[in-house]
Amino acid sequence: MQSTAISFSPSISLPKKPHKPSGSASFCRFNPLSQPLRFGSLNGSAARKINSIRCSADSSSSKLNRNGWISVPAPVPERESDGVEVRATSVPESAGEAPQSKPMTETLVLGSLFGLWYLFNIYFNIYNKQVLKAFPYPVTVTFAQFAVGSVLVILMWTLNLYKRPKISGAQLVAILPLAAVHTLGNLFTNMSLGKVSVSFTHTIKAMEPFFSVVLSAMFLGEFPTLWVLSSLLPIVGGVGLASMTEASFNWAGFWSAMASNLTNQSRNVLSKKFMVRKEESLDNITLFSIITIMSFFLLAPYAFFTEGVKFTPAYLEAAGLNVNQLYTRSLIAALCFHAYQQVSYMILQRVSPVTHSVGNCVKRVVVIVTSVIFFRTPVSPINGLGTGIALAGVFLYSRVKRIKSKAKTE
Q1: How many domains would you assign to the chain?
Q2: Which ranges constitute the DSSP H helices of 312-380?
C-alpha cells in the first residue's frame, strides 16, 4: 500500500514575453522568497492575505476539483514559472520505519564504544605496568607510546580513514600549550604507575574533579556551587584514607599522580581559554591527533637527554631482559594507549561532557577492580573503604554537574 506525499521541485524557465491577462481573471502565484501569500486580481483590486494553504481530497468542497487541488478560473496557459512546482510523488509506507530504528542503532554503537573504552584501558594499564616493572624508564616508555600514536595518526590520514586537517600557524600556536600539558600528564601517569600499584594510581587520579574546580575558579572565573563543594569532600577524604593504608605507598608515586591530575585538568582549562574562536575550533579527534604528534616531538629531546637510548635490543639483552616479550608488551600498551584515548574522544562527540564524566568514573572503578584481581594487589578493609568513598564522591560530583547543566538549559 502506498501513500501520497507532496514534494516541491524548482521549475526554472526564462520568460519569453510578458503575459497579458484577459479580463479580470484571478490567478495564484507562489514565490518562495516572499513571506506572505496573497491572492489578487490583475485589474488592481485589493489583495487578500492568506496565511496557509491546505490541499485536501474532500470532494464536497466547492472550491476543489476532483483531483483535490484548488481550482483557479482562467488558468494561465504558459508553463513558465519563477516559483516552485508542486508534484505528487509516491512514498512507500516503510519509509517511516527508518527513524524508529536509528536511535536503537546509535545506542548499540555508543554502548560498543564504551565497552572498547574500558577494554583498551584495562589492557593498557596491565601491559604498561608490566613494562614499567621490567624497564623502569617512564620517559622512554611515554616517548615510545607517542611514537606509535603518531604513526597511527599518519596512517589514518594517509589512508583517508579520517580527513586530514588544514592547520594554520595560529592554530598550532594555540594548540602548543595543550600538547605540552598533555605530554606532562601522560608522563606523570607513567611515573606513578612505575612507583605504586595501578589501583592506587587510579585512586589518586580520582581527585581530578578537585583540580578541575580549583583551576576553573582561578583562570575561568567559574566558581562552584555549594553542592559541588560538598561532593568534593568525600573525594578528598577517601583518597586520604586510601593513601594512609596503601601497602605500595611512596611519595614519588603519590606526587606523580597528583601532578598528572594537575596537568590533565590544566589541559581542559586551556582548551576552554584559548580554543574559543570559531576559526580555531577543531573537532575532538583531529585535535587529539595533532596533540599526539606534537607531544612526540616535544618529548623526544627530553627522553634522549635524560634517559638516553636504552630501548635497543643490545641494551635490553645486556640488562638480562626478554627482548621479544618487552617489545610485544610495549607495542600492545602503546596501541591500547592511543586507542582508548581515541575512543574516548569519539564518545565525547556523541554525549555531553557530564555523561562522559560519569562514564570515566565507571571506567576508573573497572580498572581498579581488574588490576587488583590481575596483580593480586593486597587491599585492606580500610584501604578499600577509602577507595570506595573517593569513587562515590566522583560519581556524586558527576550527578551534581548534571543537575547544574540541566538548570542552565532551562
Answers
A1: 2
A2: 313-318, 323-348, 353-375
Contact status, residue 193 vs residue 129, Cβ threshold 8 Å: yes
Would you say residue 100 lies in a domain? Answer: no
Helix, strand, or coil here: 87? strand
Run of H or E including 64: none
Domain stop point among 94, 116, 141: 94
What span, in angstroms and rounded, lies between the C-alpha atoms of 5 and 96? Answer: 12
Helix axes 98-134, 353-375, angle to 10 degrees: 40
8 three-state secondary structure: strand
Could you tell me which of 154, 156, 198 has the C-alpha nearest to residue 346? 156
Of 137, 125, 116, the closest CA to residue 306 belongs to 137
Q: Return the C-alpha cell found at 278.
A: 570559531
Q: Is position 99 within any domain? A: no
The reply to whether 70 and 179 lie within a common domain is no
Residue 47, in any domain of the structure = yes
Domain limits at 60?
2-94
Question: Grid coordinates standing for 191?
Answer: 611515573
pLDDT per position in the chain (410 positions), as tens? Answer: 444 444 444 444 444 444 444 444 444 444 444 444 444 444 444 444 444 444 444 444 444 444 444 444 455 454 444 444 444 444 444 444 445 566 888 889 999 999 999 999 999 999 999 999 999 999 999 999 999 999 999 999 999 988 888 888 888 988 999 999 999 999 999 999 999 999 999 999 999 889 988 888 888 888 888 888 999 999 999 999 999 988 889 999 999 999 999 998 888 777 766 555 544 567 888 989 999 999 999 999 999 998 888 888 988 998 899 999 999 999 999 999 999 999 998 898 888 777 888 888 889 999 999 999 999 999 899 999 999 999 999 989 888 877 765 555 55
Question: Sign of dihedral through CA atoms 140, 186, 364, 254?
Answer: positive
Give me 267's grid cell: 589541559
